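Two pore domain potassium channel family protein structure dump, as promised
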Amino acid sequence: MEKTNLYKVDEFGVKNYNYGVLALLSIILFAVINIGLGYVTYIAEAGVENSPVQNYADAFWLMLMSSTTIGFGDVYPVTLLGRITVFSMFILGVGILGGVGAVFANKVFGFADTNIKNRELRKQNEEILAQNEEIKAQLKQLASQINALKK
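structure tokens r here:
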């Protein structure tokens, strides 16, 4: 998985994700889902009486408004399949856009700083443990020397 540049593993075994690549993949997925579900909606709604979806542009607009939960109400589905695609777009669109927004907020506001601090603390803890082992070995050596002097 590391060959895809989605993440790199640091010296502590922590995965550091490449948020730029993940955001780009999310945007591409978002576009593909909008285009695909827009087409399905167009097929389901076109030619149906009283349907405001008259062409593919209307269906695509409906998907964009559904994915962002704006839903102006000017274009809406009247068939069961159209309603299912809009519902699917509500769920998928909010999830994808929310994920991209979270990545953006994380980068802008630096919520990941605690992760960096935790890595620094792990490194310090490793150094302290190594020092403790050295001190322990020296104390054992001193104890054996004292015991030798007592005899």
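Residues 113-150 form the longest helix (38 residues).
lmk if u need the other ones
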